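Our consortium's second objective concerns turning raw sequence data into structural hypotheses that experimental partners can test. To show how far this objective has progressed, the report includes one record in full. It was chosen at random from the queue rather than selected for favorable results. The single chain below, 400 residues long, was entered without modification.
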Amino acid sequence: MKITLRPYAHDKTRWHVDIRLMNPCNSAREIRKRLVAPARLSEQQARAWGERQVPKILQKVLGTGSRIEVPSARKESVAKTARSRAVTLGEFYVQRFHPEHVQLQKPATRVNYDSTFRNHLGPLLGGIALAEIDEDRVMSFRAELHRRMQPSTANQVLAKLRVMLRFAKRVRVIALVPDITPLPTPRRRPKVVYTDEQIARLVVSASSIDESAYIMCLLAIDMGLRASEICALEWNDLDLEAGSMTVQHNTYRGTTQTPKGVIGTLAMTSRLKHALADFRRRELQGPLVLYRRSQHTGMQWAPHTPHSIRYALNLVQRKAGLPDSGPHLLRHTVLTRLARLGADVYEVQAVARHSKLETTQAYLHLQQATLARGAANLLDRANDRSGGKRVAKRARSPRN
């Protein structure tokens, strides 16, 4: 068998696949098929697509009465697949996947699944039978996502499709799950973070607004709390005597749930500990640490929302002469500062409360730069002791 590829003359985003193989019915003759692969495949993917067409070509050559024998161990599963051939992806989502999987997730995850199905999976694959979603169909879907959106967003959609198909296999609606390869994503550039001088300006600006804004700013810039976690922080989560807090709640659309990542106990900075102790003596409104009161709440005390936290922190940023960015830049700043100060990856992970170490390792390049600078300083001191400066000075002096 020989497969030759060249760009398709009428569409440069596709590959012309020329397949040649021996005829099993007549060895003196060669079978040749010229096909066009789906759009936006790489050369390697187009070659793999061509290889998967070979059994179909042979099936046609052998005739409609011939068939490829299925191993006995798989006959039952293939029979079930044949019976479920009419079940479309859309029907499966509504009848099985949504009630048995999606509804068991956190509210934010449920909304994300429903949005992904409504906007992408349903319109593009909803009317297709589950058993017909093979690797060819997945690659075409993958190429269409790449045309519509950024690779990182497309990979999230592909990940949800993979979960759906694995669930379908688990409940024996399909026999096999096609390979779903994520799109390559460009390497991310290091994010810009606040300098020590900018952090000081933020803290001063927050303290000049009110005590609530000051505590909100410290929770973000010292502890790395997310906006939804600041909303749900309760006095029972704090041990002011020990100077620690347990981050175990967040808020999503008015619902309190467990936070993203893992539940973790953090040590508070001294300035946050003293600010919270003073605030509790004067502003105890209820079980939550922070409340808001404005025209949006009818001038009554009410819990914060992630939107109101973002709005308050944006006010602090403007007062400090910094552009609006929201709370995540403050969280990213504290993790970056820890890495630059020499904290190891496990210490950064403990503060970030990442469930996977790989997420924390994005900050390692900052720590490595700090360690490299320290290594250079060690070499400089060693060179000074060995007279390296005198040698270099003589080498630079003009010859007589």
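The partners drew two points from this record. DSSP finds 16 helices and ten strands in the chain. Strands lie at 2-7, 15-22, 30-36, 238-239, 244-247, 250-252, 255-257, 264-267, 291-292, 302-303. Both points have been shared with the crystallography group to help prioritize constructs.
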